[in-house]
Task: structure prediction
Amino acid sequence: MEGQMLQSLESDKPVLAFCDSSFKLHKSITELLNPTKIGDFVLSMAPISSLLINPQFEKANNLQEWNDNVKAQKID
Result:
C-alpha cells in the first residue's frame, strides 16, 4: 500500500511530509497548506511544525544525524 502511494505521488503535486493517519493524504495536505501552484511546483506558507511527520522518516533522519555526529567526533 505505501509503495503504491509513493508511486502515485511521483506524478502528483509535491508534498512536504507524509501523514501517518487514515485520512486521505493528498486532500488533507492540500487543505492544510492551502498551496499556490506555480507550474509543476506548489508553494505554501504553512509552518513545517503543523505537519505530521511519519515516525519512520523521523527515525531515519535521527539515525543519520547521530551517525554524522559520531563520525565528526572521531575526526576531532
User: Anything to note?
Assistant: The chain has one domain: 2-75. The two ends are 44 Å apart (CA to CA).
